[in-house]
């Protein structure tokens, strides 16, 4: 990796993606990586916490499914927020649960219904993280 690529990698936002459905996790990971994000992925809450604790770069966004094996996405967010209170959280779900489909930007918590398109995901991430000019170069 060249120095400019290494520097570029460090300036790109990082996303911890937590999804227990392997196909959805892999597809979402490919989308996010194609947009230039640094993506760390986990299949459950236990792995997600382990990855978070070992990560040397700050995580900019926790993107988690609402329903996970072993713990809910909400519980995972609480666990991660004990380590970093200001982390932004994007909860995704294929269930139209009214408890989660309202966002609370003041609490850095957002919701995205499944299925979502690449474009919808990109717009939501820009809403959460703010305008990211480099995204439009690869989008």
Question: Could you characterize the architecture of this molecule?
Answer:
The chain is an alpha/beta fold and 139 residues long. It has a single domain (3-138), classed as 3-Layer(aba) Sandwich (Rossmann fold), CATH 3.40.50. 41% of the residues lie in helices and 19% in strands. The protein has 6 helices and 5 strands, in the order H-E-H-E-H-E-H-E-E-H-H. It has helices spanning 3-11, 22-34, 45-54, 73-81, 118-129, 135-138; strands spanning 14-18, 38-42, 61-65, 88-93, 109-113. The protein has a 5-stranded parallel sheet with strand order 2-1-3-4-5, sandwiched between helices. The chain starts with a helix and ends with a helix. The model is unreliable at 1-10 (pLDDT under 50).
Question: Secondary-structure blueprint of this entry?
Answer:
Elements: H1 3-11, E1 14-18, H2 22-34, E2 38-42, H3 45-54, E3 61-65, H4 73-81, E4 88-93, E5 109-113, H5 118-129, H6 135-138
Parallel strand pairs: 1-2, 1-3, 3-4, 4-5
Biggest sheet layout: 5 strands, parallel
Structural class: alpha/beta
Report, as a whole number of angstroms, the end-to-end distance. 23 Å
Mean pLDDT: 84
Name the descriptors.
Rossmann fold; globular; alpha/beta; 139 residues; 41% helix; five-stranded parallel sheet
Brief synopsis:
The chain is an alpha/beta fold. It has helices spanning 3-11, 22-34, 45-54, 73-81, 118-129, 135-138, and strands at 14-18, 38-42, 61-65, 88-93, 109-113.
